[in-house]
Amino acid sequence: MIYFDNAATTYPKPERVYRKTVLSMRECGGNPGRGAHELAMLAEEEVFNCRIAAAEMFGASPENVIFTLNTTYALNIAIKSAYSGGAIIMSDLEHNSVLRPSSATTNRLMFFNSHTELQGEERKSEIINSLNGIIKSMPPDQRKRSLIVSTAASNICSADMPIREIGQVASENRIHFIVDGAQAGGVYDLSLEKDNIDTLCLPGHKGLYGPQGIGMMIIKQGSFSRKSFIEGGSGVNSASVTMPDFPPERFEAGTLPVSAIAGLREGLNFVKNTGCDKIREKEKKLSARLAAGLKQKFGDEVIIYADSFCGGILLFNFRNFPSSEAAAWYDQNGICIRSGLHCAPLAHRRIGTADGGAIRVSFGYFNTEREVDRFLDASGFCLKYLKNK
Amino acid sequence: MKGIKVMKATDICTISVNSVTYAMIAQGILKNAQIKSRITRPNISASHGGCAYGIEVYCSDSEYAMQLLEAAGVKARLTR
Q: What's the ipTM?
């Protein structure tokens, strides 16, 4: 099997992640934050050590690392708990995990242009101009009650966003800034402190190489004045009918998935020891090899979208053939890729693939050049099949 | 038991903190200052908010421990 669907979830995981996940389930079986006996404290140590590792990686304090089920839950909490009546300003590359909770929160949605047709400093500058244009069009009292939400990197192509510059604009205008780090966590160097991010939402199971079922909402020190989102047991202040007014417990109702958290910590250690730069470079190299191979082998019969961006994701179609039919062929032949809209209709509209979507190949650190070459060979058979169908 | 100081319950003071997360943070701060501590669930009545977490330290260390926690921004309350 060739696994090229790492943007959905990375696979395989580092061996240490598997080992730690199982070990913690066997040996740290208590409920963290629900007692002070040995097993509860062992479980809490796992949780706390993961908070420390995440806080170090993303420039935050351990108590501001809030565990959630996944990025979507983190974004729902972030958007709905921080919203205070203004507009929600987002990029035109956002995933449904931003678009839908925002849409459910207000009908005052505004979109700034990600200018995927441009490159480098010119692109950065135009993105910021677009964002500033929206902000300036708003009355000052509405600005302060608004949110800016941006993905750090698209889930359908390798376009990234100038998070530090957007953070600067948000900070200057005193607008709460939420970053969707679903594709960027573990691949790009993100820092709440350096990038002026108020809330960073991350998955454990993608670029951080942890298990599924764990995500994080990391909040900036001092930016805590939000409504609770899910209420329930927190292990403290139990005589009160409201959730504690301090993080992380305010947002962590119910029992945490200790073994997933323990596995995530090993994933964080893997990323830290390997280095984001090295991971990104490897994915970039594989992506460039695939793009060059597709162009060389198929010429005009293949369309590669947003190919000026080179990173871990490559989006393409065989000309005149639906992505779903190609994906079905790859699937039947032991190649895991994904077709369609990838839960990101806005981004597909931006790239020009909203009608029928496209084939997404997404790389992880454990993919190899040999797999890329096998994929290219297989693609020849795929195209032949599509033509003869 | 000549030469060995036997600790009595009255030698132990409890510092209450917000939650187990802050108890872990507090324990790390105290450990860096060579202060021995243990995380507990102090007996706090419903009128004080219900369940909580605490750090047990030797009473002789308690005031210094409180100063350290305050300096680190950890909300803490000393209960002797």
A: 0.85
